[in-house]
Amino acid sequence: MSDVLEQTELVESTMLDSPWVTIVWNDPVNLMNYVSWVFRSYFGFSRAEADVRMLQVHHDGRAVVAIGGREEMERHVEAMHDFGLWATLAKADA
Amino acid sequence: MKAFRRSRHQFVAVFSADEAGTLSLLASQLSDLLENRSSYDSDPALLRLLPDAYPDDAEASAEFRRFTADDLAVRKSANARRIVADLAPAIGVTSATVVKVDAQAAQAWVRSLTDIRLTIAARLGIETDDDVESGDAVVRDLYDWLGFVQGSLVECLDR
Predict the structure, then answer these.
(1) Which helix (H) or strand (E) holds B15?
(2) Cross-chain residue pair A88–B76, CB shorter than 8 Å
(3) B34-60 b/e with 16+ CB inside 10 Å = b?
């Protein structure tokens, strides 16, 4: 019984700790140079890194741009909405 | 129109009175839309400006919106009004006007130009890359011109 409880607690704590991701989705409006600039100016990505993520958004329809706690990801999503990018958050393993 | 270029710490463009008037009107309409917003579901433009943060969870999206939408709308509206204020000297005059934007204002301009283009695209039903060539020709030209203005400003900011 105690084993089961411990296991349950372990599962719960793993779920609580499981990271979230910020996803930016492709849209036909935002300019490629704008998206790359947003990634650099907000996330501090290098030009190469920003361009890789921007092209991933463009070609794959979406890209993960950040991973971490839920509150932190919500702040990132709000910041992306401030820039007019289409961003959502989700559990990393979802 | 002469595209934005960087001049020391300023961003400089030239607008005809008609261009300034059109952009100012669009910015002012955006500001009104944000300040008088009510239902998100009925307006694709509002839904795109303040999108669902949790696409598969309506409740969590509503909760996120409760905490963020007011502040975002205030900031977006202020950005739009900054464009209106900066363009005021270029409206109702006979010759084209040099419009100078400082670094802080440029942040407002580049965001609001995005918001204006998102709003027009939502109204035109532009949802995928394939839809970009559709819609009314006059509005299409306007949409493309706004992209040109914004693109030139991004290039300046990017250096």
Answers:
(1) strand B10-15
(2) no
(3) beebeebeebbbbebbbbbbbeeeeee
ipTM: 0.93
CATH number at residue A79: 3.30.1390.10
Question: Cβ of B157 and A37 within 8 Å?
Answer: yes
- Establish if A40 belongs to a structural domain: yes
Residue keyed to tokens 């991973």 = A67
How does pLDDT run along chain B (159 residues), one tens digit per residue? 899 999 999 999 999 999 999 999 999 999 999 999 887 767 899 999 999 999 999 999 999 999 999 999 999 999 999 999 999 999 999 999 999 999 999 999 999 999 999 999 998 887 776 766 666 788 889 999 999 999 999 999 987
Interface residues on A facing B, Cβ-Cβ cutoff 8 A: 26-31, 33-34, 37, 41, 74, 77-78, 81-84, 86-90
Domain count, chain A: 1
What pTM was computed for the model?
0.90
Map out the domains of chain B as residue ranges. 2-157
| Alpha carbon distance B147, B149 (integer Å) | 5
User: Domain range spanning residue A38?
Assistant: 18-91
Rounded CA-CA distance A63/A86 in Å is 11
